User: What shape does this take?
Amino acid sequence: MFPQTGELSIQFKKNNKGNLQCKKITITSKDNSAYKFDHIPDKKLPEEQISIALLEKIKSVTEPGKQTWEVEFEAEGQYIFQLREKGQNWDREEVQEIPIPKRDRPQEKPKNLQDTNHFHNPYNFVPALPRNDLPKFDPKTPKRELGDAPPIGHGRYEENYWSGRIKINLTTVTPLLIPDTGEVENLLNEKGEPTGHKIYDIRLGKDGKPYLPPTSIKGMLRSAYEAITNSRLSVLDKHDELLGYRMPANAGIQMVPARIENDHVCLYLGTSNISNDGRPQRGDPMYAAWLRQWNRNNTTVDRDAINYSGTEQLPRHGKQVRFWAEKFAKYKRNGTPIFTYWKVREVVPSDQQLGQPPAPTSSQGNGQHQPTDDPIRQFEGYVCITNKNITNKHDERIFFDDSNKVSILVSESEKKRLGERWKKLIESYQNNQEFNNGLSCPSALGNAAVWSRQITGGDREKELTEGTLCYAHVRKKGASFEIFDLYPVMISRSLYDQTPAEILNSTLKPATNKEKLSPADRVFGWVNQNGQGSYKGQLRVHSVDCSSDDAVDNFGSEEESFPLAILGQPKPEQARFYCADDEKGKPLHHGESDPKNKGKGEGYKYKDQNLRGRKVYPHHKDLPRDYWHNPLEDRTQEPDHTGHYQEYRQPQKQRMEQRSEQNRSIKGWVKPETEFQFEIDVINLSSVELGALLWLLASPDVYYHRLGGAKPLGFGSVWLDINWDNTDLRLGSEWAEFYQSLIPKPPKIGNGISCIDNFKKAVVSAYGVNKHFEQIEFISAFYNSSKGFNNAAIHYPRVTPHPKPEGEAFEWFVKNEQESKRAPGLNLSLPNLADSQPASFPTNPIQKKNNQH
Assistant: This one.
């Protein structure tokens, strides 16, 4: 476009008020060609397209009539731009470029692991701090901080709020899983029956390239935005129920056999007396008699099982019986007795008579279990069958008493409390995913155990009815007894005192009306979990496009796939991982010396506790360059030259792939270094709301976001960057000016970037007393999650450096909390992600006696 010369002619007249105005504007070039301003009426001056010097001369005219000026201008077709006097420069500023923080993608440098006996958990938490003291929103001003407020709406561009479009470049750093859930394949067994194992192909668009749903991107951004603005939790599913945990094995000795009888809890103490803490008094045998039934090595009935005398019928649960019992003792290898118990020798239904007592058992061939010199005795009681629910189990129990039965009258309020807790406890048992998926036994126990009666019994097990057999946790209180809880088995699950929702600060719970929407609710949208009400938000993700041609890795032929490692299910009952010691997300104390560390039940208990925060999946930093190569090859049992194991793949077992309903197989993934573009439309964001979004997308301190499936295994690390040349963000007043002029006015490159400072100042003002922005707990934690860790690999807890084909991640948790005096667990809690260098875990969380940690 070259400058042209010509003449500007304006006919001035006075209006009815005596003010001078333009009547007609004519612009002609030297060859008498006529020009005009783009879409502007002849009588209106587009001031933005006239130089300041010329405009001042035009406005200085005071008399009506015709005025002319020799001019220069740029022309495109018949439309002109940048009109100025001949020989003068264009004196208006060009599009202003605002300084944009320099942001370079960090280079991944494969690291050598010096210690494979330590690891980081695949997930951690960004602390969620109480929001009680946030500045109140003033509806009379445009200032909107990080507190709760009604949404601004979408009806028009508000003058002091930001609207526009942000263009984003997305680059995959690790493989991205975008499963095609509409074309899932169910693996069949040899009989043609579904096995529950699903095989996924990658989701492709019409162009044959990976299809990345805008909703996935929006979900990724929302999770991050919610964390860095400390917004309310958008979802709090399944957190309003009391959670269960497995009691330590040594607590079983405190469990007293009990039966519900006529609004009483009747304690069946056998031949023993009860101590203050519920244990049998020193030297007394265990309360219940042992009834031989199971083969120690499998789930079949043992050949030495005790049937009803003279029949092949096993005693049934809940039935009243008579029996002969012989006292036995279990000894240490040095001959010291550990405990004594009554062993059932013969049994008949209660309406039948027992014959003569059996001959005493020979002391030969019984190993650590030997008969005592006590005479064989006859008793009556009730059979308690809980099934072969643990490996090596061989005996069931008979509850009985020898004139020592204690009957405790239960008040209506106490009856209600015990009934409600019993029901919730049984429901926690029956909500077992493996059982509900149809597994015949717990996968961790293999074929040597089956589900407990309380799991398979359905609704009838949920009620404390007349005749219910259970175990009571009691304490002697003077001449009477206090009942803490009732349990279905001796070593049972127990319930925490409070639900996760109860310990969560009220200012973090999901909003229940539009007046209390937090920043993430206002920007990304909100749905009332407790009733009617919703808001679609001020942000929309769209126009997702893959620009890479070779974007997909397919694994061999169309039928080939490989099984992913089993992904752990959320387990909030692991209080040391999910429960915080204070409202700021501090981990639960650990170590024997801590006064609060009295056992597993210390989680979800105290009023000053909180949830750890929002779950995040830290980036798997500095993986070897060939880590993702050839996933069809099982390399899981040997580390590579850097010390890394192939964590993302399910190990083979006896050279066979393990494909079960617990894991999934995939046929392909999106390659690393694949590029996508997408756009974000925003409307009416405050400077703080926009600043938080731009900080996520443009801050040099934010590295990787996590997207797609199987993030705990390292998939889905992506790098985001704003394409500022194709981004247009303006205040509502600027959009009004743009539309009023009807002249194309390019955006200011980097417009809105200053909002990042507004966001930082708001965070410091609300949460940072005597702290810098980077030191705020949730900001520091988000930094660390986006960067990853330097000192150890990331994988699920296990007790070996290498992944075990059998899985058995539960072993680490059992060891971590075991209460052995000789080798107690370290009682480790999930480290604080806000620490500058979050601690790693040892694969063997055991301390030897007298060893200080």
Q: What stands out?
A: The mean pLDDT is 89.
